[in-house]
Design a protein that fits this description.
about 100 residues, alpha+beta, two-stranded antiparallel ribbon, two-stranded antiparallel sheet, 3 helices, 4 strands, about 40% helix, globular
Length: about 100
């Protein structure tokens, strides 16, 4: 049971790191990136006030006016929607690679 718990915690940590790299600004450098705890990321991106609407064959999400990180979350969702598969694997979503 401890082994299964450890694997789930490591998966959650790795997904958190991937999410932060995926949501970074394109011009940021490795030295400028700061570590964010899993609980902070969960509070920023999971517990948010939003309404999912369906109208005229379209589906959308409307965020609360008081949600401070609406732009960051929208950028993350736009990047997730642009993931496409080509012959060599997945196409890059961010045009500039992260350099050390």
């Amino acid at each position: 049971m401890n082994c299964a718990h450890f694997q789930l915690v490591m998966l959650a940590y790795n997904l958190n790191c991937w999410l932060l790299l995926f949501n970074r600004e394109e011009q940021v450098k490795v030295t400028e990136m700061k570590h964010t705890q899993l609980s902070t990321t969960r509070l920023r991106f999971l517990f948010l006030a939003a309404k999912i609407w369906m109208h005229g064959g379209g589906v959308g999400v409307r965020y609360s006016d008081h949600y401070e990180e609406k732009g960051i979350f929208q950028r993350l969702m736009d990047r997730l929607r642009t993931i496409t598969n080509n012959a060599n694997g997945y196409a890059p979503v961010i045009s500039r690679a992260l350099r050390c």
